[in-house]
Specification:
Layout (H helix, E strand, L loop, with lengths): L4 H49 L11 H25 L3 H14 L10 H11 L1
Helix pairs in contact: 2-3
Length: 128
């Protein structure tokens, strides 16, 4: 007794689904592996930058809390500058950045900004 058409169609669909699922899982696994490698590389860069910012190789004393705070803020600026530059290149991007900051403040999110600190410091100096 052979398989009927409904059973054959079901088996074909099940095989197709299994192949697609296998490809998707493989794709996700490769993507996560690549993200892991990129994150590890970025961590090395950040630690290198932090080490240089705090002059850890040239000093005998432990960095002060203020120095560490400034160094971490500088590391945040690296991420901000990439977002700031990318969004600023889009027509109306500057307005989008301002809009996002205003929206964040409206919802009570403090100290939220994509604008690097150098631009804030410039505004403070010009205001004086």
């Amino acid at each position: 007794m052979g398989m009927n058409n409904a059973t054959r169609r079901f088996n074909i669909k099940a095989r197709l689904f299994a192949r697609k699922a296998k490809r998707s899982i493989s794709y996700l696994g490769n993507g996560f592996g690549q993200e892991y490698d990129e994150t590890k590389d970025m961590a090395k860069v950040f630690f290198y930058l932090l080490e240089n910012k705090l002059n850890l190789n040239e000093r005998e004393t432990v960095p002060t809390e203020e120095e560490v705070k400034n160094a971490i803020e500088q590391l945040k600026d690296i991420g901000r500058i990439s977002i700031f530059t990318s969004i600023s290149l889009i027509p109306g991007g500057g307005f989008s950045l301002i809009g996002l900051e205003l929206l964040a403040r409206k919802f009570g999110v403090k100290n939220f900004t994509f604008i690097p600190s150098a631009f804030h410091e410039k505004k403070k100096k010009e205001a004086k």
